[in-house]
Design a protein that fits this description.
single chain, 136 residues, mainly beta, two-stranded antiparallel sheet, globular
Amino acid sequence: MDKQIIELEEGLNCDLQFEKRNGLLPVAVQEYSTGQILMLASVNQEAFDITVKTGKATFWSTSRNSLWTKGETSGDFLKMEKILVDCDQDALIFQVTLQGSGSCHTYDQEGKHRKTCFYRELDLEEKKLAFIKELK
C-alpha cells in the first residue's frame, strides 16, 4: 500500500483533504448528548480553523458564498464538543451542544427554531414526506 495513503488513513496527523473536494468538506452536525443529526453543512479551511479556535461551529455558506458562524443572527450557537474525521480525511462530524432552541432556520408550530433540519421523513409506500411527530 502507498505510504502516503497509510499515513492519511492510519496516521495521527490532521491532513484534511480540502483540495480533493474543491476546497469544501461536508460536515454532519450531531448533537453530542443524543447523537441526533441536526444539520449538514460545508467547511473550507478558514471555517474549520475558526471553529477550532473559537469552539463555535463555523461553516462556509454555499448559498451566500461567505463564512457563517451558526448563531450569529439567531443566537442559537453550536458549542463544539468533538470533531470526528473520516478515514480519508475528507468528511467531518461536528459533535455539538446546542446553545439555544435549535439549529434549523425553519420554525416549529410554536414559532421556535426547529432543533434539527431533519424534521420530516419519506413515507416509502406513499413516496411523500411526513412530519416526524415530535419534531413538527
